[in-house]
Amino acid sequence: MEIIIQPDPASASALAARVIVRLLRAKPDAVLGLATGSTPLLLYRELIRLHAAGEADFSRVRTFNLDEYIGLAPEHPQSYHSFMWQNLFGHINIDPRNVRIPDGQAADVPAFCAQYEEQIRAAGGIDIQVLGIGTDGHVGFNEPSSSLASRTRIKTLTVQTRRDNARYFGSEDQVPQHVITMGVGTVMDARQCLLLAFGSAKAPAIAAAVEGPITAMNPASILQMHPTAKVLLDEPAAASLKRADYYRWVYASKPDWQRL
Predict the structure, then answer these.
(1) What are phi and psi of 38, to 5 degrees?
(2) Digit-coded pLDDT (tens) for 156-201
(3) Is 108 within the bounds of a domain?
(4) One of 46, 68, 136, 164 is an active-site residue; which one?
(5) Of 46, 68, 127, 143, which one is the catalytic site residue?
(6) Residues 54-63: tens digit of each pLDDT
(7) 234 pairs with which residues across the strands?
(8) What residues are paired with 65 via a beta bridge?
(9) Known catalytic residue: 143?
(10) 258 within domain boundaries
(11) Is 91 a catalytic residue?
């Protein structure tokens, strides 16, 4: 696990964008695992900017989103289908046929989840998985106590997650109770993970995930076991890390060929 602390979210997001663009140049048909919510917005804006500048080509890229609310139609303004097309896909040259987002209206949810896993395998696996982290350490919608070997499945949201997401819906009561999410094991199969976290509210979860024990009570902590996981933070999100100065020193001391 590589911890990269930057002054602000824009700087951290720009580094994450560089990682993705570097992959696209080496592998134009790369498979990206994508996240939603406020955390990746600056990353997506930077990717849009790089595409407009002719530095990022998405024409052959394939994508799989982490999750979707059950019961929301794709056109619902708070669905993750809508989010992705409004904040990324609608502004780049991606082929809609290469976009995969969980179906929140699937008639047979277990069958759909099995199919989603098979689609990821058929695509050759995910090259880079973009992640955020919840205030309780969840990744995707893998809430605390989720199996660290779990695959794509239905999950029931915690009160905390519904409370955190209420700002998008107008009230907590309007947040769906159930979702389809990639599992922790699915996330761990990605060849590289980029976890972004910004703001002081994320500091306790980040400290537990990075420096605490590996535990299902903080699902993000399993990334300690990933061979290529980068955790990109702003200063407030890094505030509770005991070894923050060491992480800064390590990143500043990298040889040029290792720099992002």
Answers:
(1) -75, -30
(2) 998 888 988 898 898 898 999 999 999 999 999 999 999 999 999 9
(3) yes
(4) 136
(5) 143
(6) 999 999 999 9
(7) 6
(8) 34
(9) yes
(10) no
(11) no
